[in-house]
């Protein structure tokens, strides 16, 4: 193989992750049960935690692209990049946020994707919240597990399948979310590779649990650690990056050959998000 081809092939395998700097992060409204307006966030601390998360992701071997939140002063949750879009190849299925408080984010994400060579698709009339509610897993990572609940409407399943269709063989399965604390699928489920995922079963209805088990092996996370955002992890190769204090699941993952890297995401958890929510694989 010519060396330039080799370099390109290797580059292609480096995971690329989009993060949005939390310049304007705050608790300005409450749209999920975690967002207690009485507890303000410490933005300086949040910026430090975000830097540490970025460093840990890069140190695990991924490339991080940063979107600045210039102009998005009134959109504190824009830091949760997972919600921007669902990515397939060079297509970005843009979110249509369920809550008016976040709807303004779409404009900034659309600009970023367009300027970075993505074709933006989507439907503004169907609520859907990007990769926060859509995770690739199962055999050859060809199953898109989509959360269906208060944020992503069931109509999005078909629309995503149609608009991201690239002629290859993949499918969408709908996963019904039933606990308001676990309002996006990425708060309760995390594929680690094409064989296995961690999940908090009681975030889903029992038919969903059955359907998920048909696609992938599942390791159960306890209620305590699920509420400590153990499932909201960033996976880079064998590295699993999650909020600290989740020793029980971490020990299980270490036994399976993963390296768990804890980060402190306390400021973001006040808004109902942790490490995975702050990232989008692109
Ligand atoms: N405060 C944000 C919201 O309620 C948190 C989003 C977390 N994102 C995620 N992918 N789970 O929308």
From TrEMBL:
Gene3D superfamilies xref list: L-arginine/glycine Amidinotransferase, Chain A
Biological process according to GO: L-arginine deiminase pathway
Pfam family name, one: DDAH_eukar
GO MF annotation, one: arginine deiminase activity
SUPFAM superfamilies: Pentein
Cross-referenced PANTHER family: ARGININE DEIMINASE (PTHR47271:SF2)
The protein's name in its UniProt record: Amidinotransferase
């Amino acid at each position: 193989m010519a060396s330039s081809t080799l370099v390109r092939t290797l580059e292609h395998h480096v995971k690329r992750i989009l993060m949005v700097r939390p310049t304007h992060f705050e608790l300005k409204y409450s749209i999920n049960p975690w967002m207690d307006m009485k507890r303000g966030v410490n933005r300086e601390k949040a910026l430090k935690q975000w830097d540490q998360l970025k460093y840990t992701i890069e140190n695990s071997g991924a490339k991080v692209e940063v979107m600045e939140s210039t102009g998005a002063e009134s959109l504190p949750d824009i830091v949760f990049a997972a919600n921007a879009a669902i990515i397939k190849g060079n297509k970005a299925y843009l979110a249509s946020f369920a809550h008016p408080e976040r709807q303004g984010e779409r404009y900034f994400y659309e600009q970023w994707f367009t300027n970075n060579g993505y074709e933006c698709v989507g439907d503004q009339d169907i609520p859907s919240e990007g990769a926060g509610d859509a995770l690739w897993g199962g055999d050859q990572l060809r199953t898109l597990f989509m959360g269906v609940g208060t944020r992503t409407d069931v109509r999005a399943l078909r629309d995503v399948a149609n608009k991201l269709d690239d002629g290859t063989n993949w499918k969408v399965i709908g996963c019904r979310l039933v606990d308001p604390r676990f309002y996006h699928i990425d708060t309760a489920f995390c594929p680690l590779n094409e064989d296995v995922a961690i999940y908090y079963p009681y975030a889903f209805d029992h038919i969903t649990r059955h359907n998920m088990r048909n696609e992938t092996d599942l390791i159960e996370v306890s209620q305590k650690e699920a509420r400590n955002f153990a499932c909201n992890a960033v996976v880079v190769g064998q590295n699993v990056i999650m909020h600290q204090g989740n020793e029980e699941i971490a020990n299980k993952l270490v036994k399976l050959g993963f390296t768990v890297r804890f980060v402190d995401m306390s400021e973001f958890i006040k808004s109902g998000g942790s490490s995975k929510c702050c990232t989008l694989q692109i």
